[in-house]
Amino acid sequence: MKRKQKVLVTGAGGFIGHHLVSYLKKKGYRVRGVDIKYPEYKPTDADEFFKLDLREKNNAFKATEGMNHVYALAADMGGMGYISANHATILYNNATINFNTMEGARVNKVSRYFYSSSACIYPEYRQTKAKMKPLKEEDAFPAQPQDAYGWEKLVTEILAKYYREEYGIETRIARFHNIFGPFGTWDGGREKAPAAICRKIATAKLMGKKEIEIWGDGKQTRSFCYIDDCLEGIYKLMLSDFPDPLNIGQDRMVTVDQLVDIISEIAGVELKKIHVAGPQGVRGRNSDNSKLRKVLKWEPGISLEQGLVKTYQWIEEQVSNKLNK
């Protein structure tokens, strides 16, 4: 695969997209970033950045014009609090964004297209207990995602398959499992669990509090993948010959309470957990990486603790800055 090609990253103002722009620049690509907003915490490394709303078809066509590859990460998303309260908005916005972008790629003769799907596509009936079998790619059907966010992701996976078969675009699909790291949303309601817990612990530490609130009973389980591993997986998958959906995530499952304990130790504090009612998502979810190892001869190698050290340090700095304003 030649370098110095022109690539588009949609969602380049968001967490994963912002990191991906920097990653691809280091690989030698000419990168165009597109989003409705600029990155919030650090300037973009993109060669050019278009501030565009991809819900408008003309904008999607403009974004994809002249591009060799597209990395489609643009989405209306957030943590469980946001996802569970905005089903219609999310389904409409994300379907419109993805349908327009994929059609723009077809019209503009993009040769290779990466779609960022999610573990949220997996059926609820496979995630009803905290200790469930890790999710394999073939577990997606019979379909029963928990929410509109998952349904839209699954439908767009199918659209990508048909665009590949009918139009010859080399589509690649990754199902992300809880990606985390610095320079991502950490407050305001759209943040995901690792960032939210880092924020709560940092706030308690800096304000001298001895307890934090946790949604649910703390026994719900997830696996969490650090951003640097996610980027490596995206790139390897994009350049591979594998056209079907593939999990990208860690396969180490922890409870939310364990996640709190790990971050508390990193922060150097002991806090009492107060469990309260709140959106929790599915009861248990973990990635089966068997196919990932077979297809890419690779799997994430950064430990949860290593990733959380970097993430917590950055979020504590943000919390401190906010408290001192």
UniProtKB/TrEMBL annotation:
<dbReference type="Pfam" id="PF01370">
    <property type="entry name" value="Epimerase"/>
</dbReference>
<dbReference type="GO" id="GO:0047918">
    <property type="term" value="F:GDP-mannose 3,5-epimerase activity"/>
</dbReference>
<protein>
    <submittedName>
        <fullName>NAD-dependent dehydratase</fullName>
    </submittedName>
</protein>
<dbReference type="InterPro" id="IPR036291">
    <property type="entry name" value="NAD(P)-bd_dom_sf"/>
</dbReference>
<feature type="domain" description="NAD-dependent epimerase/dehydratase">
    <location>
        <begin position="7"/>
        <end position="249"/>
    </location>
</feature>
<dbReference type="GO" id="GO:0051287">
    <property type="term" value="F:NAD binding"/>
</dbReference>
<dbReference type="InterPro" id="IPR001509">
    <property type="entry name" value="Epimerase_deHydtase"/>
</dbReference>
<keyword id="KW-0520">NAD</keyword>
<dbReference type="InterPro" id="IPR033890">
    <property type="entry name" value="GDP-Man_epi"/>
</dbReference>
